[in-house]
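Support request from a user on the community tier.

User writes: "When I paste my C-alpha cells into the form, the page sometimes reloads and wipes my input. The last time it worked, I copied everything first. Here is what I submitted, just in case something in the input itself triggers the reload:"
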C-alpha cells in the first residue's frame, strides 16, 4: 500500500532508535473502536493508537495501530493522498511510543508537533510527502 516499512526505519534512525523494532497494524474502524474501548475506555475509533512496550532494554519499541478508515476520511478532508496520511499517522504513533504526548500541556503538544513536523519535513526529501502536518 505505502512504503511504511521504509518510513518507519528511517524515522527510527533519525530519532536515534535504529536498534529498535516496532510492529504496525492497519485496521478498520471497527477493530480500532474495539481497541480504543478495551484499552482507553473510549467508545469511538481513533486514527492511531500506540502501545509502548514496558521494557527499555529490549529491542521492541511497541505497536502502532492505524485505522485505514480514519486515514481515508482525514486524507479526503485535507485533500491529500492516503499514503501521505498513513505516513503522518505512523510518525505520530512512533513519537507516542517514544514518550511524546499532545494530550497533557500545550507545551508538550507543541513539542510533539514540532518534532513530528521536522521529521516529516526531513523525510519529504526521501519520500513523496507534501506536508509535515502535526
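"...and here is what came back when it finally went through:"
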Amino acid at each position: 500500500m505505502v512504503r511504511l516499512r521504509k518510513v518507519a526505519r528511517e524515522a527510527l534512525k533519525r530519532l536515534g532508535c535504529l536498534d529498535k523494532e516496532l510492529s504496525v497494524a492497519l485496521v478498520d474502524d471497527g477493530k480500532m473502536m474495539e481497541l480504543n474501548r478495551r484499552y482507553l475506555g473510549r467508545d469511538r475509533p481513533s486514527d492511531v493508537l500506540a502501545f509502548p512496550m514496558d521494557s527499555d532494554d529490549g529491542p521492541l519499541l511497541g505497536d502502532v495501530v492505524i485505522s485505514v478508515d480514519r486515514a481515508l476520511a482525514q486524507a479526503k478532508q485535507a485533500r491529500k493522498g492516503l499514503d501521505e496520511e498513513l505516513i503522518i499517522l505512523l510518525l505520530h504513533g512512533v513519537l507516542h511510543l517514544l514518550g511524546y504526548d499532545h494530550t497533557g500541556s500545550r507545551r508538550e503538544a507543541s513539542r510533539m508537533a514540532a518534532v513530528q513536523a521536522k521529521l516529516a519535513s526531513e523525510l519529504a526529501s526521501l519520500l513523496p510527502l507534501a506536508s509535515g502536518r502535526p
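Agent notes: The reload is a front-end session timeout and is unrelated to the input. Residues 129-134 have pLDDT under 50 and may be disordered. The longest strand covers residues 60-67. Escalated to web team.
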